[in-house]
Amino acid sequence: MNLDDYITKIPDHPKPGVLFRDITSLLADGPAFHEAIDQMAAKVADLDFDVIIGSEARGFIFGTPLAYLLKKPFVLVRKKGKLPRETVSVEYDLEYGTATLEMHRDAIRPGQRILIVDDLIATGGTIEAMIRMTEGLGGVVAGVNVLMELKDLGGRQAIDGYRVDSVLVY
């Protein structure tokens, strides 16, 4: 199954010259979504890791079924102020400002090997923030696993030195 066939392309969104790749059409097709998770799992079949983390909200969409399939725990990375217990946080740059991500302080133990999962790597900012939080808690980033990679935006270079597995590369 070619998963690209299930990604809707929207020209000039959110601004002229941008081709937006909408994953909601893939999510709306049960067999395609199942195949996406299977392909993401296949990309990391050789990887040794203990925990999957994913950021709100699309990292949850792909990270939790992957964790379920691989029988791994899943750790939520959320926007500031959404988690109820003591957290660690990282501020990172967006195209037009900054944002803050948080994770429970006790979510990762020193030495645990972490797989970071998200829908997309573009500029690498969100992934880089999750790497900083993971390593700040003593975790080891085993790899990054995404459905899509927009290689012209330099995300892989922003997190140079880490293994990145992408199902679709544009």
Mean pLDDT: 96
Main sheet summary:
7 strands, mixed
Overall tally of domains: 1
Global outline: globular
Cα gyration radius (Å): 16 Å
**Spatial sequence of strands, sheet with the most strands:** 5-6-4-3-7-8-9
Please write the string of helix (H) and strand (E) elements.
EEHHEHEEEEHEHE
CATH class: Alpha Beta
* Measured distance between first and last alpha carbons: 17 Å
CATH architecture: 3-Layer(aba) Sandwich
Secondary structure tally: strands? 9
| Total number of helices | 5
Strand coverage percent: 35-45%
Briefly note the structural class of the backbone. Answer: alpha/beta
Low-confidence stretches: none
Helix content, binned percent? 25-40%
What does this molecule look like?
The protein has 170 residues and is of the alpha/beta class. It has one domain (47-169): Rossmann fold. The protein has five helices and nine strands; from the N terminus they run E-E-H-H-E-H-E-E-E-E-H-E-H-E. The chain has helices at 24-27, 30-43, 58-70, 125-136, 155-158, and strands spanning 8-11, 19-22, 51-55, 74-79, 87-94, 97-104, 113-121, 140-149, 164-169. The strands form two sheets. The chain has a seven-stranded mixed sheet, sandwiched between helices. Strand 7 (113-121), helix 4 and strand 8 form a beta-alpha-beta unit. Helix 2 crosses helix 3. The longest helix has 14 residues, at 30-43. It is globular, with a radius of gyration of 16 Å. The mean pLDDT is 96.
